[in-house]
Design brief:
36% strand, Nucleoside Triphosphate Pyrophosphohydrolase, alpha+beta, single chain, 148 residues, 15% helix, four-stranded mixed beta sheet, 2 helices
Length: 148
């Protein structure tokens, strides 16, 4: 521990951003590419669609966190996460400075999502039908990237 760390809890005096992970799961269907989204059950952006995700726990690898969050929020097992995008604008989350790591996550295309944790609903949505107005925060940037 450095000289500026608390000898009780190990925290230092630096203000650091929090790290969040978001799972981007895709599948092909008769209507084209679909993406797995959850409807947020809490603020910020309550009622909006978002990728399943949440905060990385202290001591947790972000790749493990994204698999955990996918299961907690959408009831879907994921594997082989691959880094897709990083969003770090200090004002992207109204709560605090949050750096989001978006991972492309493999899932069984037959997976049936079941909302849990902070999600009020979870479903496969056609990639081409998602509108900016219904998506939380900066997640639309990922939708647009996937459409290219």
């Amino acid at each position: 521990m450095g000289d500026d760390a608390c000898h009780h809890c190990g925290r230092d005096s630096y203000r650091s951003p929090s790290v969040a992970v978001d799972a981007v799961a895709l599948r092909e269907s008769g209507s084209g590419t679909e993406v797995l989204l959850i409807r947020r059950g809490k603020d910020p952006s309550k009622g909006k669609w978002a990728f399943p995700g949440g905060f990385v726990d202290y001591g947790e690898d972000p790749e493990d966190a994204v698999i955990r969050e996918l299961e907690e929020e959408a009831g879907v097992d994921g594997f082989e996460p691959v880094a897709l995008s990083i969003h770090g604008n200090p004002v992207r989350d109204p709560r605090k400075h949050v750096i989001a790591l978006f991972y492309l996550v493999e899932v069984d295309p037959g997976s049936v999502p079941v909302a849990g944790d902070d999600a009020s609903h979870a479903e496969w949505r056609p990639l081409g039908e998602i509108t900016d107005e219904e998506v939380a925060g900066d997640h639309m940037r990922i939708i647009e990237m996937l459409r290219e």
